[in-house]
Amino acid sequence: MNKQTEKPKLTFWEIWNMSFGFLGIQFGFALQNANVSRIFETLGASVDNIPILWIAAPVTGLVVQPIIGHMSDKTWNSWGRRRPYFLTGALFASAALLIMPNSPVLWVAAGMLWIMDASINISMEPFRAFVGDMLPAEQHTKGFAMQTFFIGTGAVIASALPYIMTNWIGLSNTAAAGEIPPAVKWSFYVGGVTFLGSVLWTVFKTEEYPPEEFEQYSQDEPGSDSIIDAAKKEEARGSVKRKFSVASLLITVGLALTYYVYGANYEQELYIFTVGIAVFGLVMAIAGLMQQAGKKEHGLVVVVSDFLSMPKTMVQLSFVQFFSWFALFAMWIYTTAAVTSHIYGTSDTTSVLYNEGADWVGICFAIYNGFAAIIAFALPVLAKWSSRKIVHAVSLLIGGASLVGIYFINDPMMLVLPMLGIGVAWGSILAMPYAILSGAIPSSKMGVYMGLFNFFIVIPQIVAASILGAMLRNFFAGEAIYALIAGGISMGIAALTMVFVDDKAAEEMNEPVDAVG
């Protein structure tokens, strides 16, 4: 097929409409992050068991996002390519948000977290690929910055909802032992309605390019020829022999670590990490056997092959993502416990003081998300003046220092300062890596590679859930504040690894990172 023309630039409001669904996605995500630990503790979970209960979220993402990415790459129907997945995920996530705060016992709440996170992933992954589908390369940073704006805006409102329900509407933020406070329940109800409504806005306000037109546009993407040529050269990495070699290594390492954990009588949650390595190797071996049997086009074989042939830039970014998201996961699951115990001086979930602290954590999360929404518009401008690499590295350093700084605070109001720094990092994490990645992968595989990129969000969360509880018990006397310090150090390491990332797509475009608007 002959080259036609590049994708037309979209207007501010067109980018607004195609990104609006992220408002609802982040509503669900923020309610989950700010309140699920609180729900777990209320239903009887101890602070050092919270990470193992949160493991459902990253494990679900690890499985769901690459599958949904691969499926959405291959989907073309009257609803479009990505929009069917937006809507499906929104329906299930909204239902889970309504059920979660009514969980009668701990295991029901853990199950709802699993369903909720799977559904959020079904909606979220195609939204990342949507930017690459709909926008020309020079507008990719605009698209991801707009998503960051809605992520921040949704998170501000959702994180503050329990506080708003308590102080503005008058609902109680306390309840009898083992019961979820009314303010939390109604926050989840509002979240369910908002999630579905905002995704419906994008579904009905945005038209996707039909297959023929999309293929024509894709051929004219800056750097697309070199990306595709590189992908062909790297295809050998997805060979049967390579699959078996990597599978053997992973299975051996996983089993050896599992035996060591068993022999040393370490905590059981470490098995999630060690056995997970072996299981991943087994999945890769199965993919190799299927490919050997001639099933080269099977989804599992394709996804594993694509994983083994990731572009160089994606591999480099994977280290940045790993240390960034380890820090974020430590913050999400331990901030409530850290603030209530370290600053408010209580771990009694039925006390007024504890629930005041938990509500204030919601406000703090709203602050960092709100600042991320604001900084989303500044980051592309700063990146144009310097580079996306420099902006992201500096942002991560600021975020890491802010997390460590929480240790030195004893006045709840002073938490606003580190939350602003965390907001800088969060805004950059949501935009810059995806903008860099989208210029390094072929359009035809945008969905599956965005899904595979999620591995480096999910794996650090699994590692965090596996080791943080044990670290606190064995080294820090159960003091949750030390998990935040570990997160700050990890984010600093992420900043250092950013130095080694190649952003060649930015070099190929005349104006790769112009401002939003």
Structure explained in plain terms:
By secondary structure, the protein is mainly α. The chain has two domains: 12-232 and 300-508, MFS general substrate transporter like domains (Growth Hormone, Chain: A, Up-down Bundle), CATH 1.20.1250; 233-299. Helix content is 75%, strand content 0%. It contains 21 helices and no strands. It has helices at residues 12-19, 21-42, 50-54, 56-74, 83-99, 106-134, 140-169, 182-205, 211-218, 224-234, 240-263, 270-292, 299-308, 312-343, 352-385, 388-405, 416-438, 446-453, 455-475, 481-497, 504-508. The longest helix is centred in the last third of the chain and has 34 residues, at 352-385. It is globular.
The CATH C-level class name of the largest domain: Mainly Alpha
Strand content: under 5%
Q: Note poorly predicted spans.
A: 222-231, 233-237, 510-517
Given the helix and strand composition, which structural class is it?
A: mainly alpha
CATH superfamily of the largest domain: MFS general substrate transporter like domains
Q: Could you tell me the radius of gyration in angstroms?
A: 22 Å
Cα distance, first to last residue?
34 Å
Q: Secondary-structure element sequence?
A: HHHHHHHHHHHHHHHHHHHHH
Shape: globular
Tally of discrete structural domains: 2
Number of strands: 0
Helical content class: over 70%
CATH architecture of the largest domain: Up-down Bundle
**What is the fold-level CATH name, i.e. the topology of the largest domain?**
Growth Hormone, Chain: A
Q: What integer is the average pLDDT?
A: 82
Largest sheet: none
Number of helices: 21
